Amino acid sequence: MSLKKMLVLLGVMIIAAVILVACGNKTPTTTEAPATTAAPVLEIPFKDAFLGSGHADTTAEAFKHWDSANPAEIPTSCAKCHSTAGYIDFLGGDGSAVGAVDKAVPAPAGTFSCTTCHNPAAIALTSVTFPSGKQVDNLGPEARCMQCHQGRESKVSVDKKISDFKITDVDAVVAPIKDDKGNTVNFGFINVHYFAAGATLYGSQAQMGYEYDGKAYDPKFRHVEGYDTCLGCHDQHSLQVKVEQCAFCHEGVKTVDDLKNNREPSSLVDYNGNGDTKEGIYYEIKGLQDILYGSIQMYAKEVAGTGIAYDPAAYPYWFADADGDGKADQKDGKSVSYATWTARLLKAAYNYQASVKDPGDFAHNAKYVIELLYDSIADLNGKISKPVDMNKLARDDAGHFAGDTEAFRHWDNTGEVPAGCAKCHSAGGMSEYIHNGGTLVVTKSGVQITGVVGQPVANGFMCVTCHDESNWPNRYAVVNVPFPSGVSLTFSTEKDDKGNLKPVDANLCIECHQGRESTVTVNNYLAGKPLDTADAKISFKNVHYFAAGATLFGTDAKGAYEYDKQTYLGYNAIHPLNKCTDCHDVHALNVKVDACKACHTNVAGVEDLQKIRATTDTTDWNGNGDTSEGVYAEIDSFRSALYAAIQTYAEKNGTPITYNAASYPYFFVDADKDGKPDKNDKGANIAYNAWTPRLLKAAYNYQYSIKDPGAFAHNPKYVLQFLYDSIKDLGGDVSKFKRP
User: Is 471 exposed, middle or buried, given 0-12, 13-18 or 19+ CB atoms closer than 10 A?
Assistant: First the structure.
């Protein structure tokens, strides 16, 4: 070891020794000093705050539980988080192996002390491993907190228990089994343990909740910078929430209890179905808990055969309730533990308990908890006589904040959103792009994005994704927006006193809602290739999703593939509502239906939007004789005809094709023409591999018309134009159609 490292280590040990003396049970003493000098008094920093915390509560069950045990000791499975000696043992601070408690701690062991967290091993912590086995690295001091505040169970342990009992019918009451030693083992409840705040905070990254197979869940809740860790929100000595700092953003917050009324602007859906979208998110969760509890009780009685009751203050929490009075049945003066468990019931009860035993879950990661509760309700629903109306409940936030969706979860395995995607699929990419003067550079090989580097994976946008923190609460001032065709476009029309165009909020929307391809990039990709010759080097070009801005600007943006020698409509300025923010709520993203009603009297709700047709539009575009149907239906006829033309052309060229909007790369080989993708020897769909330039252009436009589901409202005649031209170019029948 180098001299420098030895000196550093010695210094740390001296500091730790001082703290150990300062925080011990004995009153600090002073050494005798010369008569003329006052004895120094050793002050313990934050002593009063610490002594008033739960970590120093001498009356707490967390520390007294083993005082009367026989033998009088805290077992190795508990000592890590219920004694100072156990915690230091776990960290290897006593010279033992790291990651395990080697020996029981004699009881009573007292409470935590300063040295529990202030010791070299604890200070060096930068990662935490959760009960699921998942690990989170590159942490700060909060790593010390989450060694204990992580619960004791996870989806992994629940699934293991189900597997150990070899359960095949999740609705059958599970009989006891014998272990390797011949002991009888019952299929009982699994308790997540208490205050698993760290695991809640990290969501799917910790996998503390029972996450149902096939469902996606939110990862760590990223609040705002500086307030998304344990120590960002809690005083590390008193453990109290820093309420005064919450009040900076959350109006009306004066006490901890007031935090229950907080609700982010991004959470505008009615999760618990009570009709109130303004109540605090705490109450949304409470509503879902009540619904789940009711479903659990119904399922237990109807399927498991025994009524059930929950008591949060009595182990093992779930009790038999044969008479249905809502209370635990009694036998010999004791509550009767619930015994007729099924696997389905265990999963739901586990999630209910997990949501209850972290009383701050509404602040730690409300979206993750809502997802767990919602999925538990849905899972029980098919087995009870009075299922919950799931149409009244909500699981996901609006798209910009739906952290459980593919738009944000796609990069979980790599841990980083690459630069080419970060602008629109991370929480910090847009702000970095704008602050760095980012732009799009169209080259022969594609579109390159400058001004942004790879970003951490996110669970949706944050306030600072769109709001300029240095000019709060204003949005970023955007005037000109570069598009994948190489042009810059804007909604801005007004000028300031210097003659410069003023920024418009809607410009910020089309920074992302513009697609990733264009006529220009498709032509660059296909340059020099024979029009009707299949080329294995050609793969599908995907415009990307929700390219509403490109549709709205039409030929000005050239987002769709525009054919040579044809003219196309530009910006759809003729509609009185012609900017993103005119028609969509900026947080909920839903269409402002009431604004549509002013002119379109047949619109009562969002489901009626597809019926809209301009009163001046009397042309029968699709030739079916109906000039009153919504323009969506007119477009859909063109789209269906284009798909038929695509399939006919592909088959004539030797390789039949089929389309699946939900599966990348969307177009697949369909040699047997059954309408389903052919499979390879590994069971995977075979991507279409016989593209000709002509076929690719038409397929690109077909995909474009689908991936902007609001295209019928954004610029309907532009859509009709490029669909018509695509059908005609493939040799399809357009005799009954009219091109705008």
Answer: exposed
